[in-house]
Write a structure and sequence with these properties.
Largest sheet: 2 strands, antiparallel
Mean pLDDT: 79
Strand order of the largest sheet: 1-2
Strand content: 5-15%
Structural class: mainly alpha
Low-confidence stretches: none
Amino acid sequence: MDFTAIDDYLHKLYYADHYTELEESVREKITFTANEMLERHLETELITDKIVGLQSLYMIEGESEEFAMFKRQGVKNMKVGDLSFSFDNPNNISPEVVAIIKKKKAKSGVQAGIGRLI
């Protein structure tokens, strides 16, 4: 994982304000955490700086909206007043990351998915 490459990539993205507004030391911790989480779910050779960056954004957005806490605790449905939420991503992996992994695996001919063993 190359923090500088990840940081440069995320600073170029339009919708990355939640990330770019943070201090560098915090950004570095977030990208490290994203990389560690991805290593628990994916083969190491599939993890790129771009994937770590996208996962970092996904994690920051989830934390800022407080959805990430509920997902970590395994909440699948939640209702507050007239609002109802359903969390459909048990792995907490960014849908953008999942799309990149599927594309990589399709190009290589590997038939595998991201999931959780029970």
